[in-house]
Amino acid sequence: MEQIARATEQIAAAIRRERRRCGFTQEQLGAKVKLRQATISKLESGEPATRLQTLLDVMRVLNLELVIRPRTKASAGDIEGLF
Questions:
Q1: Sequential pLDDT tens for the chain (83 residues)
Q2: If both were cysteines, with which of 28, 55, 66, 74 could 24 make a disulfide (CB 3.0 to 4.6 Å apart)?
Q3: Quick check: 55 and 11 in contact, CB under 8 A?
Q4: Which domain holds residue 43?
């Protein structure tokens, strides 16, 4: 399912949902990416200091990809409803 995210919290929620859908604990996902569980927790909470490389490494393990495109006309409220 394709998801639109415009805010840190939305990206964090999408990562958390996909991790759970894959059946991984934060510790298991961290082990696959060679990161501590605390780092996965910070990523999933939307902590602002997360490195882009960390996000991309986690997305790779979860079989996700980042797509850059022009914004849709949907309002922030419409997008929030997706989460």
A1: 688 888 899 999 999 999 999 999 999 999 999 999 999 999 999 998 899 999 999 999 999 999 998 988 766 566 555 55
A2: 28
A3: yes
A4: 1-62
**pTM of the full predicted structure?**
0.81
CA distance 81 to 83: 5
Task: State whether the Cα torsion 19-43-54-34 is positive or negative.
Answer: negative
Q: Is there a domain that residue 72 lies in?
A: no
How many folded domains does the chain comprise? Answer: 1
Length of the chain: 83
Angle separating helix axes 26-33 and 37-45, nearest 10 degrees: 110
